[in-house]
Please model this.
Amino acid sequence: MTTVLTAGLGLKAQYYRAALACPADGLWFEVHPENYMVAGGPRLAWLEAIRAVHPISLHGVALSIAADAEPDAVHLARLRKLVRRIEPALVSEHLAWSTWRGSYHPDLLPFPRTREALIRIADNVSRTQETLQRRIAVENPSHYLRIESHALGEIDFLTELARRTGCGLLLDVNNAYLSACNLGYSAEAYIDAFPGEAIMEIHLAGHTPDPALGDKLLIDTHDVPVAPAVWELYTRLIARIGARPTLIERDGKLPDFAALYAEREHAATLMRAPLYHQAA
Amino acid sequence: MRTKSTSRAMPGALCLFQDAFDCALLAPDAAPDAEVTALIAQPAFAVYRNTGRNACIDALWANYPTVVRLVGEQWFRAAASAYVSESLPADPSLMRYGAGFAGFLAGFEPAADLPYLPHVARLDRFWTEAHIARNDCVLDPARIANLAPDTLAPVVLRLHASARWAWFPNMPVYSIWSRNRSSAPVDDDLDWKAEGALIVRPRATVEWTAIDAAACAFLEACARGRTIQEAANAALEVRHDADLVPLISSLLGAGAFSRLLHHSGYSARRP
Model:
């Protein structure tokens, strides 16, 4: 098995058989670890079978690192157990919160980027990395709300978080695009300013206009193909930083594996392009 | 390197923000503080209110498919939404969400005409528990068959880690559940009688079988670490004409047991 990750795919139960049979070089699969935090049974058996053929990335949605609280000890222990069992190529989480005072909101919630938040989140990321004994990547979130009390820009915040904790970053180009549209700033400027050396992984996904507000509010739905504008930003990004492991994320209205794989092939082709340019 | 933890007597701004945001997500009319009030006023705040609630409802939908099939989409989503308002997930692994859903349905006024519904939900929950239970071995029936009758009585049968069972004394819950768990067509000729259900994952997938009151009593006794002799007596107490050989044989065939222990004064642990 190669350890060089090229373009990967989100793994859903419907794709298990196709994923197992797919021989592509550099192909990897990403799952939400929360779906595999079980004692035994067919889910783990499938994940282990696919892990024997392809590298796996664990992309957490529930560690709640931006909550003003330490990560839940039971959840973190389960994550550590899964990391040891699967030995993933990548582990990542979101710059967001979801668990608060014992209740879990299945969402990625926003917060004001202040110095206080930076200290708390850096502490949570460090605890996570110490527990897992590995570096994690932290993902830029989607934004829908104007929060007046931000003291730091998102790029400054993520850069400082990476500097303080040694964590990597996961740049979700779709999140960057739709946040820029929703809040009215330049997506290109955001992509150009994002600290390239810290990027361990890139995400590409589809978005849809809000049913009520239309194009004024783009929603990170992951239920349609990657938009042309997002492909353009991705091309721009890898022309600057070079190829990085890139995931096609799809969570809703799942197409057949071949259609998703075609998007993956497009990303894999683009990843090779900047290297040719450099050689020329 | 870990940054120094903040220890403080007063909650900080992040904590106050999250208290207010959390409150605003749950209570549509809440206006907890000026900053979050300004966020609620933005149309996009609805994205957060809807996303979390819908994800909870979708999780219940995935975890209670037989209830969905019995009541239909609209009814289920209304019931699930009411449950979410009462009981947010405590565990981010959403396959475990809804442990209290059967109990909720038992007290849910619109479900009063569907007395079997909470029991059906309970069997859906058993299915999930069996699905994610730890892997366990299955006792080979030959191990029992090879024992001399006089050595059999003090043996303890350890239950399979995934085994779940229930007896429903007033209604055919197993028939209702098993016919609706799959997409098979459901016919109307339902014999309205007491039934029991055993749900277990002896191999790769979850399996289920109907069991009678004597078999339920036998399993209960085994779960308490009783010997085969004691479990047999428990079965005969609820049904004096119970035929023990086929009873034990069918439970073995279903994969309900993992190990055979020779009783030496200790109790088998409940899985």
Q: What stands out?
A: Chain B touches chain A through 51 residues (CB under 8 Å).
